[in-house]
Amino acid sequence: MINKVKGTYDILPEESSRWQNLETTIANVSRLFNFKEIRTPIFEYSELFHRGVGESTDIIKKETYDLTDRADRMLTLRPEGTASIVRSVIENKLYADPNQPLKLYYYGPMFRYERQQKGRYRQFYQFGAEAIGAHSPLVDAEVINFAATFLEALRIKDITLKINSLGDNESKENYRNALINYLKPNVHELCGDCQRRYQENPLRVLDCKVDKNHPVLTEAPKPLDFLTDADRFHFDQVLSALDAIGLEYEIDKSLVRGLDYYTHTVFEIDTDLASLGAQSTLVGGGRYNHLFESLDGPNVPAVGFAFGIERLLLALESIEKEVAAPCIHCFMIALGDDVQESALKIVNELRHGGLICDYDFFNKNLKGKFKQSERLNPIINLIYGTEEMKHNCINVKETKSGVQETVSLDQLYPYILKLIQNQSSGCNGNCSNCDDC
Ligand code: HAM
């Protein structure tokens, strides 16, 4: 038997409505903030990510899915969305759009060869947003607010917004030199990964999960202490805008993020929900004012974020009180071979009128048919046999009250519509199928 690839998963039918609900919320909240969707290919030339994300990052060093196509081109399955969006904005000259900043969002699968664990997969989905073309600290705050509003729309509450600033190139360079000098005599006390990072990308040493409480790291100089006056002013303005919106945050002086392109603001939103275990970061993002230039584009500032969808679903799992009940409008219980085609015709007409209907295709007995109906949880059971067919009528049974009426077929559609309007579907408000949702 051929199984799924390690680190991937199937979204089975009983799970898919949760994904669809999340996708609807993504579209709705993006509309609120006037972000428009952009869709880019799943693979790109490898060079895009090497240059965009950074040669010395963990993602590029050990996590990309690289392939050579039949014409020997080096391609990579996208490990994240930002580099692709920037590539597309440059290639399609969207940066010249008179509407600035350009506000784009995206949703789709990403690929990283990481060790599989809860909340961490090799194919995973991201919902990301990028605001392109503005230096204003208000835009950093707008993007953070967008991420927080999205979580609020999902009713995920146990969250902490962590924020920090790396500053622009001058601040980053000053900090980098100070950190190298500080670590030089101490780095041998840290883990092997830190020693490698010290050589290749010293900032990432601060991100170490193994040695995060080691005094060498807790006492290390922090980026905030090396910001130029202008960069400090930008950060203060971001914080002041967050205060004005009423968004609570925690300044995390050690937050540096794992991708090379960040400048100025970096942020993450973590959840305290136990269901996520170690993978508690729901969203990560920040400003990247030089990525366009490093991908041969014009000098365009930008700021954005990306959520991991699987982690959102895990977080939602623990706050959803009950699993969303599947619910449909009508279930047809047709009794006897001679009525099947006529029953299908009735169902078909109801569907054309916008009603969600299902049908028992197996020749079950009445008990079996009612059992199936219970599983589908319709508002109405339609019971149709030889007698009803003869008299051009059908039995309509409300599942909630158990009340049954015989209704003439030409009155069936308006009768059902009225019933549905008058009665709550009995769903828990999460099914997205019924009139109440
Ligand atoms: P990132 O921190 O690499 O940032 O990923 C963003 C989010 O994607 C993480 O916080 C996490 O929720 C989710 N994620 C990452 N890797 C995995 C995985 N293996 N399995 C499941 N979920 C995962 C970026 O990707 C940046 N492009 C974000 C950004 C956009 N910065 C500016 N604009």
Description:
By secondary structure, the protein is of the alpha+beta class. It is 37% helix and 21% strand. The strands form 3 sheets. The chain has an 8-stranded mixed sheet with strand order 1-5-6-11-10-9-7-8. It has a 5-stranded mixed sheet with strand order 13-12-14-15-16, sandwiched between helices. The longest helix is centred in the first third of the chain and has 20 residues, at 13-32. The protein is elongated, with a radius of gyration of 28 Å. The model has no long low-confidence stretch (mean pLDDT 92). Histidyl-adenosine monophosphate (HAM) binds at residues 80-82, 112, 114, 119-121, 124, 126, 128, 130, 258-259, 281-286, 304-308, 310-311. Histidyl-adenosine monophosphate binds at residues 80-82, 112, 114, 119-121, 124, 126, 128, 130, 258-259, 281-286, 304-308, 310-311.
SSE diagram, text form:
Layout: H1 13-32, E1 36-37, E2 43-45, H2 46-53, H3 58-63, E3 65-68, E4 74-77, H4 82-91, E5 102-111, E6 123-132, H5 137-153, E7 159-165, H6 169-183, H7 192-200, H8 215-218, H9 229-245, E8 250-251, E9 263-271, E10 281-287, H10 291-294, E11 302-308, H11 309-319, E12 328-334, H12 340-352, E13 357-359, H13 366-376, E14 378-384, H14 386-390, E15 393-398, E16 404-408, H15 412-422
Helix pairs in contact: 1-5, 2-4, 5-9
Bound molecules: histidyl-adenosine monophosphate (HAM).
Bound molecules: histidyl-adenosine monophosphate
What is the average per-residue confidence, as pLDDT, rounded to a whole number?
92
* Beta-strand content bin: 15-25%
Q: Please state the CA-atom Rg, rounded to the nearest Å.
A: 28 Å
Please count the beta strands (DSSP E, at least 2 residues each): 16
- Sheet/helix structural class: alpha+beta
Largest sheet: 8 strands, mixed
Can you tell me the residue ranges where pLDDT is under 50 for at least 5 consecutive residues? none
- Kindly report the oligomeric state of this protein: single chain
The DSSP helix count reads: 15
Please give the share of residues in helix: 25-40%
CA-CA gap between termini:
40 Å
Sheet with most strands: strand arrangement = 1-5-6-11-10-9-7-8
Shape: elongated
